[in-house]
Design goal:
Number of domains: 1
Number of helices: 7
Shape: globular
Structural class: mainly alpha
Largest sheet: none
Order of helices and strands: HHHHHHH
Radius of gyration: 19 Å
Mean pLDDT: 84
Low-confidence stretches: 1-6
Length: 224
Amino acid sequence: MAERSGLNIAAVLWGIAFAALAMAALTTKASANGVIGLTGVGHALTGLALGMAMADKDSVRSLAGRSTTLLYLAVFLVLELAGLLLMRAMGERNLSLWFALGASFATSGIAVTWLRVPSDSVLACQLFFHSAIIAPLVAALPAFLIDLTRNEGLGGVLLGLTTMSLTVSVGCVVAVPLLIVALITALAYNLSRPRADQDLPWAVLTAHQLMFAILVFRWAGDGL
């Protein structure tokens, strides 16, 4: 009875935490600082969930597929860091932030995967999420190559930056709403399972990504 009561209290506290995070995603000023603040709080909650899962010695989870998932996330992390370094070198604050935030989620995903391998639906969401982050970099590569062949100094980067900025804006309008639906579906499926089969760290990270996607969608609507 005491254990069940403790679980119910924990569920209520997590519900309150994410209700507050959802309220922040919907009401916080859609700006770079707002996105950074929400992301920081969300990562703190993910770390707390991961710590609770590590302390649960009775929970046994299959690690099948962990190496493949880690490989996927590591590749995304490398590409996101490359985008971050490229944009910082060009002095593009918002675009560098775009890739930095993606890299932070890849790092969180790697940490959670080390302990808990995601379900197929959650893994699909991770692939979708990080593909949306790196899509502007991939789309802009031909434009950057054209800029280099022009040999016009700093002015030669304009086509690449324009392509990347346009891809981010279009992606936020087209891909992010689909991502939101996918994250809601994966989260609802996870939470609808019996309590023993639910995966708290991935549920928290998925919910965090959902709130992040909502705020980014609003940020894009204000011109990013």
